[in-house]
Amino acid sequence: MKFSDRITAMECSPIRKLIPYANKAKEKGKKVYHLNIGQPDIATPRQFFDAVKNFNCEILTYSPSNGIPELIDAVIPYYRNYGMEFSKDDILVTNGGSEALLFTLMSLFDKGDDIVIPEPFYANYKSMFQVLEINVVPISTKVEEGFHLPSKAEIEKIITPKTKAILISNPGNPTGTAYTREEINTLASVAKEKGIFIISDEVYREFVYDNLDYASFGTIKDIEDNVIIIDSISKRYSACGARVGLIVSRNKEFMTNAFKLCEVRLSVAELEQIGAAALYKTPQNYLKEVNEEYKKRRDIVFEALSSMEGVVCRKPEGAFYYMVKLPVDNAEKFVIWLLEEFDVDGETLMMAPADGFYETEGRGIDEVRIAYILNESDLLKSMNILKEGLKKYPGRTTK
Amino acid sequence: MKFSDRITAMECSPIRKLIPYANKAKEKGKKVYHLNIGQPDIATPRQFFDAVKNFNCEILTYSPSNGIPELIDAVIPYYRNYGMEFSKDDILVTNGGSEALLFTLMSLFDKGDDIVIPEPFYANYKSMFQVLEINVVPISTKVEEGFHLPSKAEIEKIITPKTKAILISNPGNPTGTAYTREEINTLASVAKEKGIFIISDEVYREFVYDNLDYASFGTIKDIEDNVIIIDSISKRYSACGARVGLIVSRNKEFMTNAFKLCEVRLSVAELEQIGAAALYKTPQNYLKEVNEEYKKRRDIVFEALSSMEGVVCRKPEGAFYYMVKLPVDNAEKFVIWLLEEFDVDGETLMMAPADGFYETEGRGIDEVRIAYILNESDLLKSMNILKEGLKKYPGRTTK
């Protein structure tokens, strides 16, 4: 019996594929700091749990395929607060940001169509491209340039008649890069001129530091019809396990098409939507405090990384990731070595090897993604383990 | 800007597309009995809500992509009780039965591959076939034969080298047909001989009446590697809104592939899984009582339909649907007419026109699906409305 080509082409997640090594390390009694996955350690606001506990009904029925009215009503003022005016029809609730993106891609792309995307990009995107047989056309960006975009001319060069959309993550997973207003305007004018969509994954919208002038694609004029925003409560409210995401777009025809997919899976879990509606009413202060906490963590990690010889990184403007070039022969081997053979006082570290975040063969081989999702003390210990590990690793490439 | 061919090909759900007519009828003050959708009116067992309310944690984190251990552990004895022995690795928790089927189809089918399926079939299947560009090869079944299967030779004739699987719903949505053990054995031997998969949607497993000898594909020997079971708590425990389903298979390679898709969407909502785990521990008695309630409803509807001149149906063995041939020119027109122009004492009825459940053009044009998911009194009133409506409908085809 044969499986589909599309599933056979799908690779395992680089974020999770080394988990068996971490499990073995734990079995041997080692403590493992998990900086490989974007799972925050911040408490989910109590409002979520209170709302769920107060939910009272006899029958847990199918809810509307586009999302429950309470949640949609709560989301509208959230966007308004950022200068974006959306109506109810512009919003579809999904099973997390991942379903939001999957449905968006299915609505736009046939097999063999081109997607343009800055590289490196979130590894789960790649899995979706593989299973939908979408052709990836990367915009090359580099750690030395803080993963910022090349010129408009460079981007225009790679757009073909088969290009359906440019997908960006802003601020970026895995890079932490927040694009400047100029970069956003450049992408907007390319999309407008070429008649293609911008899919803007903005799940880290609140994770921008140093009072940077962050521009959501929802605020850019004259390209309303081209813009599709992917959103989620996972990181914003530290509620990854709720699986509540959003598709937001003013393009009516797109929304009609994406809604068909929502209908096929009938509805999103209702209790989680009720909790999410409460989260969107959480005082803005909560988001500020979380932002300050992550800024502190980013700075701790930056100071630590800067002190390690041979390590290349720039201080990222947002999200909670670093893409770091290490002085090692192979980042995956190094991560496995850390788990299998190394420890500092019985403790070690797990990171995500970065080659899975690149489309271009051979890129990212000496890079890792570090998620700074632990508290100050654990981060300091983790960075010390990395520093000591780099000194001892047999495959170190510089002295 | 162009949308994908696959999304453009997708039709709207026949179960939901007439909802705007129902809404207009309600705005005019009419009461509408909804027999168009399989949303039971039975209370969700309290165990679900109690478990959710007792859930205590600080952070709602990603849970394992294959499902939480508590739920998987609760599901294993449930199957054992029906004579099916599955291990943890044979089970993947999904966002409802719909995601279970979508992931299964993606794992097996490339564009243009053949799926063999008895017609009529659940309309949402069709949407999935359309968006995945799977070629549908229907096994024709008829209301006059209670939608039972043709001979083995007839089925074998339509299997091609491009056939990846036979998909059945047993007991069936929309037909209510429960296949005999002989039919199941026939399908099993076809699958074994031709080296193809059986995808068996058994979400209505407990909805089989008259002590019929129901055979789950999980109990059939020697074809373990060919069988994939689609399951869900939606109907079993009247928890449609929870969106908890299952993929169950002993084929390790299939499970490895389907798991990749689970990883891409990270996890299923955790609270709902905790509730579902509690549901699987609900005393077996609950399922018996629900079964008796539906059997009563089935019999009420059968008696009513049998008394209507020109109506053709057989008493179904299971699920909670009737596929009924009506003496009308066009079932969709008739359903719209009932909503727009007809009432009995201010009340009317909504059913699902059946052409959307057929692949073959022109079939089902004078058929409807009736879900008997209301209480005795409402069902009696609904049947009376149908009877009176059929008498008055201008497009009636027989006198």
Automatic annotation (TrEMBL), chains A, B:
Entry EC no(s): 2.6.1.-
| Highest taxon, organism lineage | Bacteria
Give the protein's cofactors: pyridoxal 5'-phosphate
Which Gene Ontology terms describe the biological processes this protein takes part in?
A: amino acid metabolic process
Question: Which Pfam family name is an example for this entry?
Answer: Aminotran_1_2
Could you tell me which residue ranges the Aminotransferase class I/classII large domain spans?
31-344
- Record's keyword terms, sorted: Aminotransferase, Pyridoxal phosphate, Transferase
Keyword Transferase in annotation:
yes
Annotated InterPro entries:
Aminotransferase_I/II_large (IPR004839), AspAT/PAT-like (IPR050596), NHTrfase_class1_PyrdxlP-BS (IPR004838), PyrdxlP-dep_Trfase (IPR015424), PyrdxlP-dep_Trfase_major (IPR015421), PyrdxlP-dep_Trfase_small (IPR015422)
The molecular function GO annotations come to: pyridoxal phosphate binding; transaminase activity
Q: Which family does it belong to?
A: Belongs to the class-I pyridoxal-phosphate-dependent aminotransferase family.
Q: What is this protein called?
A: Aminotransferase
